[in-house]
Amino acid sequence: MNLVLVGINHRTAPVEVREKMNIDDARLAGAVANLAHRDGILEGMIISTCNRVELAASLRDAASAEPALRQFLADFHRCDLTPYDPYFYWYRQEEVVRHLFRVASSLDSMIVGEPQILGQVKKAYAVAREVGALNGPLNDVLSQALAVARKVRRETAIGTAAVSVSYAAVELAKKIFGNLSGKTIFVIGAGKMSELAAKHLLRSGASAIFVANRTYGRAVELAQAFHGTALRYEELFTQIEKADIVISSTGAPHFVIEKAQAEKLLAARKNRPMFFVDIAVPRDIDPAVNELNNAFVYDIDDLEQVVDANKKQREREAVWAEEIIQEEVQKMMRRLASREVVPTIVALEDRLNRIREAEAERHRGKLSSLTAEQREAVDALVRGIVNKILHGPITELKSGAGQPEHGHLVQLVRRMFGVGD
Questions:
Q1: Which of 66, 77, 148, 306 is deepest in the core (most CB within 10 A)?
Q2: Which residues of the chain fall below pLDDT 70?
């Protein structure tokens, strides 16, 4: 088994280098097929996202691993790789297994615990299988990487706490309303962060969205993206009492919603709760609104405090996740070692049985006077001797699987019994 992985990611390379090495979805299947059919490469898989590009391969010869993968990248991107050498990392054997387990489990991500990478690894695995690029130990490693990622999600809380401002807004809204089903969102200002917060709230069950912006065209554009309703800015206070959740992110130099206005809104709503997400700097929502019953105001600092607390929680969960991965890596290495030893055991049994059969044939004439029962007894005797000779080496080969010196033991047994590679 000769596993090798080469890659760049958000920690080792700037975005312009990642862009240069990126392999887009349209070309991914062809690239993987090309990789796997190169001389000396038995299996191949490519993960290519905005944050990482990684090639994993199983090869016949360990010495040819780096040149083969470098040549593929140079050919595919039609460039000299030398200027990019400082950005690449290389892993081999057990390091490959550990790295793939960590990547799939989102421990190597820019945001630890983010869920997107598992889907990206699944996709890369599916593409490689579809083009016939996985059929051996690398296939086993990737299949297990997905299983380990699911185990990490199941047994830790690494992915449960929001670690972006927009997700934090959703988390807080759920604490206030319990269930977001049927809730109405008003977006004041059409900035990117407002858009993200609205998107996450809608995905979590909110049913209607209204968008007001000083530039009406931008309000229309954002409302259309969410199948919502655009409002002219001057219409805002004729409609906003419908809002359960208000997301505000304008460039106004003064408060957009003051305490007296909020008081009127709550009265019109018969004191049903209102949740204000104030992402603007300077702030859009008067902090005094928080003094009103059933009004809940969170500004950007409040949201970032939630994010920081959740990041710390994820870091604590990551410690448990690393322990799970360490245990799973050791199990995987034992499985791979056992898989490697099977051909040696089969070859060993075949070698001794061929010797037995050849000797039986050579002495056939001398045994011709024996009865059928006696010939059967002799054959059983010889088979028993062969099996007893095989027992010791086979037991050692199986029990030593996964140990550092196991490769030397395999080669020693092969030499002792005259079993070729």
A1: 148
A2: 1, 161-163, 340, 400-407, 420-421
Phi first, then psi, for residue 220 (nearest 5°) are -65, -45
| Amino acid residing at 11 | R
Q: Which secondary structure element, helix H or strand E, spans residue 170, and what is its range?
A: helix 165-177
* Cα distance between residue 306 and residue 163, in whole Å: 8
pLDDT value of residue 405: 64
Distances in whole angstroms, Cα of residue 265 to Cα of each of 233, 246, 260, 270, 272: 17, 12, 9, 9, 10
Task: State yes or no: is 79 an active-site residue.
Answer: no
Q: By three-state DSSP, how is residue 269 classified? A: coil
Q: How far apart are CA 363 and CA 377, in angstroms?
A: 15
Do residues 398 and 326 lie in contact, with contact meaning Cβ atoms separated by under 8 Å? no
CA-based nearest residue to 52, from 97, 21, 79, 93: 21
Q: In what order do the strands lie in the sheet with 245-248?
A: 229-232, 208-213, 184-188, 245-248, 274-278, 295-299
**DSSP assignment of 64-102, as one string?**
GHHHHHHHHHHHHHTS-SGGGGGG-EEEETHHHHHHHHH
What pLDDT does residue 287 have? 94
Q: What is the pLDDT of residue 406?
A: 63
Residue 216 phi/psi, 5-degree rounding, is: -60, -35
Residue that the structure tokens 């069950």 belong to: 205
| Catalytic residue (one of 50, 62, 79, 412) | 50
CA-CA distance, 127 to 44, in Å (whole number)? 11
pTM exceeds 0.85, yes or no: no
The pLDDT of residue 289 is 95
347-362 pLDDT tens trace: 888 888 888 888 888 8
**Which helix H or strand E contains 178, and what residues bound it?**
none
Cα distance from N-terminal residue to C-terminal residue, the chain: 13
Question: Both tokens of residue 310?
Answer: 């959740």
Determine what percent of the chain falls in helix, strand and coil, rounding each to the nearest 5: 60, 15, 25
Q: What is the dihedral of CA 41, 42, 43, 44, to 10 degrees?
A: 10
pLDDT at 325: 94
